[in-house]
Every structure is written in structure tokens, then in C-alpha cells.
Design brief:
alpha/beta, Rossmann fold, 2 domains, three-stranded antiparallel beta sheet, 8 helices
Amino acid sequence: MSRILLQADRLDMRHGATPVLSDVSLAIRSGEIVTIVGPNGSGKSTLLRALVGALPPAGGRIERAPGLRIGYVPQTLVVDPHLPMTVARFLNLPHRVDAARADAALTRAGMAPHAQSQLGTLSGGQRQRVLLARALLSDPEILILDEPTQGLDQPGSAAFYRQIEAIRGETGCAVLMVSHELHVVMSASDRVICLNGHVCCEGHPEQVASAPEYRALFGTGTGGALALYRHEHAHHHHDHDHEAAE
């Protein structure tokens, strides 16, 4: 039986006196992958921060399942490239972590060979995987990712999405992800939520792609197409992919 892990009920969020989100209701169930898309300034990051408890709502309420273990992956890892710090050491901040758990998390995130690498030498994609590994340390029931593939190229994004799908398959955790590319959504998404200060529409990727609200927001440039990352794209359709990404 799927159960509700995280729920927002008529959520209002303000930045000072400015409304950022109004009347947002959503529920994330165990094991599902939900992607939130929306233009810049639509309140996506604010919504995530409210859901994890980092920002207080101005109205409405947020309910989390009792004892809910959340793994949060922030947008980027900012590292001083001159600071000597290995991946393994980073995972042990601020508290020491059992070595076996650290190994398991690095393996799941695809970073096991890089445990002794210096953070400053890693690529953007590898840094995202380190943040992913850190989020996996708590054995989360829900993984929350804020624009995790920003700054990665198409193959890098596709590989990262495949990693998330694999983790969901192995651990059964739910995934809530904010996508920075309006028209590119992980094909494994069970639901897509379009946000623009409020929930414009939601549903299966195919339903959302044909919704007039979605077209009104995102219809320009991509012909309104909601491109899905399918695994074969990563290999065969490079040229087509790059066109779709523009």
C-alpha cells in the first residue's frame, strides 16, 4: 500500500510582503517519482524548502509522515578548489559516518571509485553525485532534489536521472525533483506538477504535455513538447537531443 509521506494543504508562502506561492496543495506517496517544473521565479525552490521544514508557511499547512527520513540534495556544492578535502572526509561532516554506510551511499550514487578524490578536482556531475551520496546516508524514504542537473550537459543529465531511477528501484524511496529544464522531464516520472506561483496542472507526463495550462506557460520554443529523457536518447539521438535542449 502506498502511503502519503509528505503533504501540503493550501500552502501560502511569502517573501516579505510579496506572495511567492498561493493555495498550493500536493501529496507525495511512497515510492513515486514526482517532478516539479515551472518558469524561473515560480516558487519551486521555496516550495521544496517549505516541504523539508526550512521555511515557515505564511498560510496552510505541511504534514510529514511521523519520523519521515528526508534526503535533501541542494542545487550545487560550492567548494574552495584549494581546500584539501576528500569525498570521504566530506561525507563525515559534520558527524562521523559508519564506513560501511558511507561506502554503500557512494556506491549507490556511482561515486565509489572517487572516495579518496579531492572535491576540488571533481566535475560538476561528480559533485552532484557526492551531494546525492550524502543525502543517501540517512537511508531516506524520500529524496528531494533541487534542480540537480543544472549545469550538466545532456549525457550528464541523462546519466544522473538514470542513477535516480536505479536508486528508486533498489531502495523504494520516493523522489521529488525540481527540473530546471521546462520541457525535459525524467521519463520515469509518475507525475509532473507545473508550478507558477500556484499549481497550474499536474498529471502523468503525457497528460501534462497536452494540458492547455502547460502549453500556455511553456508552449513557445519547444513547440509545446514535453521531452522525456528516454534511455535510448543518451546514446542514439545526440543531435536531436541538443536541438531539444536549446
